[in-house]
Amino acid sequence: MRTPKPAILLVTALLAGCGSFAPEPHDGAPFRNRMETREDADFRVSTAALSGEESRRFLGVDLETKGVRPIWVEIENRSDRSAWYFPIGTDPAYFAPYEVAYMFQRWWRWDRNHAIAEHLLQGAMPLEVPAWGTARGFVYTHDGQGTGYVRIQILDDDKVREFRFVSQVPGERWDFQKVKFDALYPKSQVRDLDFPSLLTELEKLPCCAADEKGRPLADPLNLVIVGARREVAFPLVQRGWNLTEPFDAQSAWKSVKAFLLGSAYRTSPVSPLYLFGRPQDAALQKPRNDIDRRNHLRVWLAPFTLQGRPVWVGQVSRDIGVRFTIHSWYLTTHKIDPDIDEDRDYLLQDLVMTGYLSKVAFVPGVGAAPRDAPRHNLTGDPYFTDGQRLLLIMDSKPRNIDEIQLLIR
Q1: Which of 152, 175, 227, 377 is close enough to 394 for a disulfide, judged by CB 3.0 to 4.6 Å?
Q2: The model's pTM
């Protein structure tokens, strides 16, 4: 008697889920050679973000398909008092070990289910770091949200210590990786400015980013940020801004599929615009519930500094939908919110909430465009603005909101 086809499919599915669970032992050794380490007088902290292949090898499950990024953390306590690690500082919505294990539960394999849960629980980073001891283990974070930018917070004697890391993940592709920041300008050509000279220089900038032919008709340059790369990137990642993939055929096709399916694409590319003769050095985005809507910003490193600190000229806007267009080879583009100032002010609120914003100024430069006489960007979208650029000066140490200085309005 021939076995019914549905029964064959069911047996095949059951057997497919019966693979052995045999993660490789590690204790951090396989990725220790690329760990980044920070330390002070009392703590030595090291981290490494695992790739999808490493997750499958050492955790035994495919976390990449579930949007989970494991971070290996080691904290050495060199003091005579216990301390506490706060994983919520690494990811405000981090996954618990049992939560991750349950993603791989199969009702017909209770032994395997138990083995996965035990393995993830035993390998999890403990909260307490004992005096003169070391705590190590995995923290389960969201994939794509600032992958590689890791923040470790330790509560020690009623104060919070913070350590920041940039951990490279093998095999990942991000737009900023193509840029050799230290080689963008000869050091002899980078001018160091005081604040009045900076304002003069900002007024000389074009109103808008340009297209590849150099026509300054794209979205307005409404943002300037002063700070080192980590001082700029970490607060943004902390507030949910994501890195972006390079703008190429692979990411464009993923964007088209997400558009057609109405799905999310947290790291979708941002199309190139030009300033200082080159496309943006980096782009970040804060996605909404699908690919149609997101906040996004582009930044370019300027050929001048403010009292020795890097200056980034930027463009920030809000995408409110996706539409077809003849202006791009892949026939789709985002439609921007015509109220350009709204997203500029949204970013200000975002960075105020991080505590790492030191000084704020609104300076001339973009040029006003009233609502009844808007300008248009390269793809024909209208926008209006009060004409001001937002200048943000970051700090490496947090401060209260009432300590932020408003320099010019």
Answers
A1: 227
A2: 0.77
